[in-house]
Amino acid sequence: MVYDVFTALDVTRTGKITRADYAAALKEQPTVEKIKVLRRSGMEGRMRRSSQSVELDEFIKMLWPSVTEKEIAKIHRWAQLRDAWHTVAHGAFRGEDKELRKAFNHLLMDGDPKLPVGQLWRAHILSKYEILQVLHTEDDNHKVTYEDFRVLALPYLQAKYITAETKRKMKAEEEAKDAQTFETTFRSMIAK
Question: Three-state SS for 18?
């Protein structure tokens, strides 16, 4: 919830909250959770005292002044898992390589280029049963490369996360592209 509030305030998606971001975010209808987090953090006072942007670490310390570095590292990991989940589950997922790569990279741990499949469960992207069905393993520590992940998981993720509305948009875009290609080809043939 805290990270969700932070990302809602980070309107420009820079990883920090600027005064402009904060002002823009306040114009939106707030949730009860957002109001609670903002009051507890003292964000309004912080924005009045300083024009400097607020990064996630500072935001966390504003909420929990006695937080340790180890706890901050854990919160950063949770944020990565949340970002991975949001990449595929936000409603505009198209199953494109860049989206899948982004989710995969958020899930990676400690610079290892292989993904422990248990991270998919921790991020709530796939259930343990789905991991068994899609990646054929019950071992949370089993690691897969990006290529294996793409080949095995992409069709399942597309079926699970691409919404009907996104499918309609993708179809309309494809039809518009085909029409434009046809028109361009037709005009070039006439011009000859």
Answer: coil
